[in-house]
Write a structure and sequence with these properties.
The chain is an alpha+beta fold. It has helices spanning about 105, 135-150, 200-205, 285-295, 300-305, 320-335, 355-360, 360-370, 375, 415-420; strands spanning about 5-10, 20, 25-30, 35-40, 45-50, 60-75, 80-90, 110, 120, 160-180, 180-185, 190-195, 215, 235-240, 245-250, 250-255, 255-260, 270-280, 310-315, 340, 345-350, 385-400, 405, 410-415. Bound molecules: zinc ion (ZN) (2 copies).
């Protein structure tokens, strides 16, 4: 699977030296003054492609919405998946290219700040009837894609769609106006002709540009030590007081975690989310309910009737098929194992998928596990899921030639598939 990889250039807030960041980076580590800062965007990350002729207050920036993540759709035959990695024009201007294509990979991007010169058009919502929520954006993207490809067959109706997002951002590409035509500043060619009032209407609805990235010192709120984490880690670790932290609101907030122990010596620890949920619309409270739902080869005992049901899924980036396979296997396995509350000393892979996105996997897992698809699928849209508990679990893995083996479950994970997100 080919993945896009955007570079963002920024000057170190401490010493001013140029630093190149990857799109997924959450930590800025200055190679010159060694400053380490955690990046906190406002509502989302906003980037722009700098105009080749240099900054100008007359530059008009056209917005594109950036979406990257795992997309699932429940159809009659079962759950289908695909990886979405796209940028989509977010302006009502007619004639604007639908997508930015490879452009963001060719040019180094910059963060938009209140000091960036130019006119930033407001990214508009998808057409009426589709609210700006990722699921509807996904169906909007699919619909646009099939219109563009000239396909007349509508996509098969789905019982449920879910999008587990790794990245949502807005990217602006520069343009300038000459008479009644808008020109692309990068390619220096016309993008669209402007009808009278088109641009003025857009400019009138523009909101003030006060977006900025905040840079936060990575110090443990508990003991003051330097927090550890890979550049793209969403959860930072304090090895001194064995605590885990995520940034929410305007501060680092403690993340409850546990490390599963194993008899063998683990060489790697991979993060998973363990989730408990209140589910309305279907009976799914205990492990026994799951056995019945999936017709699992296990006898329903009184103990299982009393055993609360947990859902697991990877807290790292992996392709959509593997993500669902691991979520399914761990949820069916439902074994908690012996646990410790110390940060494992050996290689710890970073959390790169937030719980807010991970929890969307629960409905897809239900659709994947259920055997009575005909009976349950039409009811899927009525199921309401409220997350009541979540725990970050580090699971032990043993390294083999080409794969990592879960030390307790003995399931294997091809190292190549992990190259997708996790560094080994
Ligand atoms: Zn610096
Ligand atoms: Zn600490």
């Amino acid at each position: 699977m080919k993945e896009s990889n955007w570079r963002i250039e920024h000057n170190c807030p401490q010493c001013g030296a140029p630093v190149t960041l990857n799109e997924a980076d959450r930590i800025l580590l200055c190679p010159y003054c060694r400053t380490k800062l955690y990046l906190v965007p406002g509502d989302c990350f906003r980037y722009y492609i700098p105009p080749p002729a240099g900054p100008s207050p007359d530059t008009i920036y056209i917005p594109y919405r950036r979406m990257k993540g795992l997309s699932y759709s429940v159809e009659e035959s079962g759950v289908s998946n695909r990886f979405i990695d796209t940028s989509m024009a977010a302006t009502p201007l007619r004639g604007i290219p639908y997508s930015l294509g490879f452009r963001p990979q060719v040019f180094a991007l910059k963060f938009v700040s209140p000091h960036t010169e130019g006119i930033f058009l407001d990214p508009h919502a998808p057409p009426p009837g589709t609210a700006v929520i990722p699921e509807s954006l996904v169906s909007y993207v699919s619909a646009q894609a099939s219109t563009l490809s000239g396909s007349s067959t509508p996509p098969p109706p789905s019982f449920l769609n879910a999008f587990i997002g790794e990245m949502f951002s807005v990217i602006y590409t520069p343009a300038y106006r000459e008479n009644n035509t808008l020109y692309d500043s990068v390619l220096r060619r016309p993008v669209c002709s402007l009808k009278t009032g088109d641009l003025d209407r857009l400019l009138a609805s523009r909101t003030p540009q006060n977006w900025k990235i905040e840079f936060i010192a990575t110090l443990c709120p508990e003991c003051g030590w330097d927090l550890q984490g890979e550049k793209d880690a969403l959860v930072m670790i304090c090895k001194n007081c064995s605590s885990a932290w995520k940034y929410r609101g305007n501060k680092f907030e403690r993340v409850t975690f546990t490390a599963i122990t194993s008899g063998d010596t683990a060489s790697h620890y991979l993060p998973f989310w363990r989730m408990k949920a209140q589910i309305a619309g279907i009976t799914l409270d205990s492990y026994a309910d799951l056995i019945r739902l999936g017709n699992l080869p296990k006898a329903v005992t009184h103990t299982f009737e009393e055993t609360p049901l947990y859902f697991w899924c990877p807290a790292f980036k992996v392709n959509p098929a593997l993500f669902l396979r691991w979520a399914r296997q761990m949820t069916i396995y439902q074994r908690e194992g012996t646990r410790g509350d110390l940060v494992p000393g050996t290689h710890l892979s970073p959390v790169t998928l937030p719980i807010s996105e991970a929890e969307k996997s629960i409905s897809i897992m239900i659709a994947d596990i259920v055997t009575d698809k005909r009976g349950i699928y039409p009811l899927l849209h009525q199921i309401r899921i409220i997350l009541t508990e979540c725990l970050l679990e580090y699971h032990p893995f043993i390294e083999r030639h080409r794969e990592l083996i879960h030390a307790n479950m003995h399931l294997s994970l091809d190292k190549k598939s992990l190259a997708f997100g996790v560094r080994l």
